[in-house]
């Protein structure tokens, strides 16, 4: 290995996992609550911080929004569209959006 992080490899899962997926789908009501089993991961904390940062920037621009600042506000509003995917894909897109 040359020190460059490799993306995770895809795996094949059998039909035995379908009941687990159904259980997870039924538990979607827990998303965003303190009972959310995935809500405390570093990736979810990063997502919540990004939303707060995004809202803060837009709210900061709104009081002084004029024709000159409209282009900047539009660029900031479009940033979340560039940060898509899961895991390493989302982190790579986040790095591109921050650049």
Give your account of this protein's structure.
The protein has 99 residues and is mainly alpha-helical. The protein has a domain at 41-99. The protein has helices spanning 18-26, 42-61, 67-82, 88-98. Helix 2 packs antiparallel against helix 3 (67-82). The protein is extended and about 55 Å long. The mean pLDDT is 85.
- Number of helical regions: 4
Alpha-beta classification: mainly alpha
Q: Helical residue percent?
A: 55-70%
Give the termini separation: 27 Å
Radius of gyration: 19 Å
What's the helix-strand series? HHHH
Quote the average pLDDT.
Answer: 85
Biggest beta sheet attributes: none
Low-confidence stretches: none
- Globular, elongated, flat, extended or rod-shaped: what is the shape? extended
- In terms of DSSP E residues, the strand content is under 5%
Number of strands: 0
Outline the fold blueprint.
Layout: H1 18-26, H2 42-61, H3 67-82, H4 88-98
Question: Keyphrases for this structure?
Answer:
mainly alpha, 99 residues, 4 helices, extended, single chain, 57% helix
Question: What is shown here, in short?
Answer:
This protein has 99 residues and is an all-alpha fold.
């Amino acid at each position: 290995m040359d020190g460059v992080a490799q993306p995770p490899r895809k795996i094949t899962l059998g039909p035995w996992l379908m009941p687990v997926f159904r259980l997870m789908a039924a538990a979607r009501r827990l998303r965003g609550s303190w009972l959310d089993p995935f809500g405390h991961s570093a990736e979810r904390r990063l997502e919540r911080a990004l939303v707060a940062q995004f809202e803060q920037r837009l709210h900061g621009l709104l009081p002084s929004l004029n024709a000159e600042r409209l282009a900047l506000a539009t660029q900031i509003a479009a940033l979340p569209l560039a940060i898509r995917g899961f895991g390493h894909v989302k982190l790579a897109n986040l790095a591109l959006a921050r650049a």
